[in-house]
């Protein structure tokens, strides 16, 4: 059976895909139709469903890895979040380094005052 219902053009994937309102419906569809619908996933048997932010619904995919079960938009957002977190870590490390330098100079200043006080 070639599925023809629920097909929409997905701007995220740049091609027509099946769209389900609920994950459960997408997974049920896989359960009962996967063997007959390999073309939905480029010749592979669909094995999992992922939420597509662009379509606000669920598509099917052949890969069951966590990353493949995310929409392209979701992957881009996660990548952006990781880059933001890395930039924040770099800023924090920079502040820590500059603080260590200032503390070291302050220690040296205090040692010099102690030397002057003792003399
Ligand atoms: Zn989509």
- Strand sequence of the main sheet, in spatial order? 1-2
Radius of gyration: 28 Å
Please indicate the percent range of residues in DSSP E strands (runs of 2 or more): 15-25%
Helix share bin: 40-55%
Q: In words, what does this structure look like?
A:
- The chain has 119 residues and is an alpha+beta fold.
- It has a domain of 55 residues.
- The protein is built from two helices and four strands.
- The strands form two sheets. A two-stranded antiparallel ribbon has the order 1-2. It has a two-stranded antiparallel sheet with strand order 3-4.
- The longest helix is centred in the C-terminal third of the chain and has 47 residues.
- It is rod-shaped.
- The mean pLDDT is 85.
- Zinc ion binds next to loops.
Which short descriptors sum up this protein?
single chain, 119 residues, alpha+beta, two-stranded antiparallel ribbon, 2 helices, 49% helix, 15% strand, rod-shaped
Can you describe this structure in just a few lines?
The protein has a two-stranded antiparallel ribbon with strand order 1-2. Strands 3-4 form a two-stranded antiparallel sheet.
Write the layout of secondary structure elements.
Layout: E1 7-10, E2 15-18, H1 23-33, E3 48-52, E4 57-61, H2 72-118
Antiparallel strand pairs: 1-2, 3-4
